[in-house]
Amino acid sequence: MGAQTDNRAVMETILQKIREAPRIMLFRHYRPDGDCVGATKGLQEILRCTYPDKEVLLIDGERSDYLAFLGPDDAPVPDEVYADALGIVLDTGNAARISNPKYALCREIIKIDHHINVEPYGDYNWVEEERSAACEMVAAFYAMFREELKLNRRAATCLYAGMVTDSGRFRYEGVSGDTLRLAALLLDAGVDRERLYAHLYLREFETLKFQAYLYEHMGRTPHGVAHLYVGCDMQAAFGLTFEAASACVSYMDSIRGCLCWMAFIETGEADGAIRVRLRSRFLPVNRLAERYRGGGHAFASGATVYGEDEVRALLAEADEMVRMYKETHEDWM
Ligand code: AMP
């Protein structure tokens, strides 16, 4: 548990800050995913069980239907409530991505994150880029201070949900021995995996029809960038939420010869913004995403483009990247 030991000092500071704070407010990023929802709810539950006299709030304007089974957020509160709170922001690399802008009202901010530390916006920043999920960090926090902190089944389920979803069911690059040791700790707390997996992975009949349609319409650049375009009309035709439509990027994750794949999903916003979800094997895509108003992890990034020309330009750049990679590497499959 090397990284964990290296970061012991900042973790101890965070625990001390938590001990001293009568009120703690938790924050996450826009477009909530399993990791940011699991990490905030998991930490909230740990803190509520451990310190029943503290007020621990999670307030956010955005909710995810897919993750609704993890329970609702708290009701909005007046601005004064934020002012004397300790704010903890989870799973969010830069301040602009924090979904509840009122986080800035908190008297002190702690950042806990596993993305590249582009902006240490916290008064205290605990960032471990090699962690597979922010939920893994919360689990590591619990593990380090388990003599004081309490973990119930609900907290463990939230954290396990985030670890499973952010690691592609423990398959991606960031998964380490420590990931599995911490996941084991959560399982020991009574996670009902069968129910959890049903909540996460059962799909609607219409979704499978949509998948079939997309496979029919999937494209591929000359050197191996698979791509899908999902317009608003398609989302309406198949009765899909934006979130469900966005999940289609994973349909392209195992095509031989395609080292990079991306989904373009129309947001329906007035400015014509198109969300891009970029994924890759072997060659990093985050620098490419950064050139198109985005960023993220080496092999999983997001971006925003406007109009067909930008879609084409992004695909052309990605195609060139793959071409060069294939020319200079072997065994890329
Ligand atoms: P997504 O495909 O939207 O799930 O994004 C993949 C990863 O890239 C996520 O972990 C996000 O944190 C990150 N990401 C997505 N969009 C952006 C953005 N506009 N700026 C920085 N990072 C992003």
UniProtKB/TrEMBL annotation:
UniProt xrefs under InterPro entries: DDH_dom (IPR001667), DHH_sf (IPR038763), DHHA1_dom (IPR003156), Oligoribo/pAp-PDE_c-di-AMP_PDE (IPR051319)
Domain DHHA1: 238-322
Domain called DDH: residue spans: 23-163
A GO molecular-function annotation: nucleic acid binding
Protein name: Bifunctional oligoribonuclease/PAP phosphatase NrnA
Species this protein is from: Candidatus Avichristensenella intestinipullorum
